[in-house]
## 1
Amino acid sequence: MTMSADAAAIHALLPQTQCTRCGYQGCKPYAEAIANAQAPINRCPPGGTATIERLARLLDREVLPLDPECGREGPAVVAIIDESRCIGCARCLPPCPVDAIVGAQRQMHVVLTALCTGCELCIAPCPVDCITLAPRGSLASVSPEPLASVNLQRFDAHEARRHERKRERLRVLAERKQRATRASA
Ligand code: SF4
Ligand code: SF4
Ligand code: SF4
């Protein structure tokens, strides 16, 4: 479904980490909620004060403090996997909106820190709690935070692959069902 012009303009100002801390399932639904006057402009911790100010200017609204219910503004962080504890279960791969984790089943997984937005979505699914967050600035090799445009591009590609896999699963299931129906006829 396409966004309204207002929602698209709001969406363009959001950091595109898809972290859900605003209480919505990603930046797009939050942008739509703001455009529809269903959400205030101060619910995005990754964007912080700078994003609230940009949204206030765009929408001619008052600047509000970040809603503490959504989290706090802080330094950029990245996810780090403890290699000695990773069991290679791959459960952290699907939740990463920007596909910043690499690794195969039963092999150690690694975060590509240059792509990681620090959204935290990989942490809860890890069954052995071997993913932690570290300030980006504390890494031995510091890379700049990924741009919102890059995050969005990678998220769109992630979603396209997810939908394609789902279509393929449904196609295979439908084929199996047809074969079973023919066999029992
Ligand atoms: S980056 Fe901001 S707008 Fe996007 S999902 Fe996270 S909190 Fe919501
Ligand atoms: S590696 Fe984890 S914290 Fe980093 S972008 Fe992916 S899901 Fe978010
Ligand atoms: S979820 Fe945890 S244990 Fe499983 S592959 Fe990812 S980091 Fe390793």
## 2
Amino acid sequence: MRPRPRAQVLGADGAEAWAAAGLQKTEHARCPGCGGNEAFYHEVQTRSADEPATLFLRCVACAHQWREAP
Ligand SMILES: [Zn+2]
């Protein structure tokens, strides 16, 4: 089976797609949409390697997506 491009996996709907992309799950998030604490997340290095990575989160309960800059 040919592996799908990572961007396509992340663009798919559903928490399962995110989990399949190897994302981690946290129970210490704070969803701006529903106030839920469970979210999938992944880190993206936006600038140089010296700077902290930006955290992208997706709520398990309502699928709201947001980011947290360090
Ligand atoms: Zn939510």
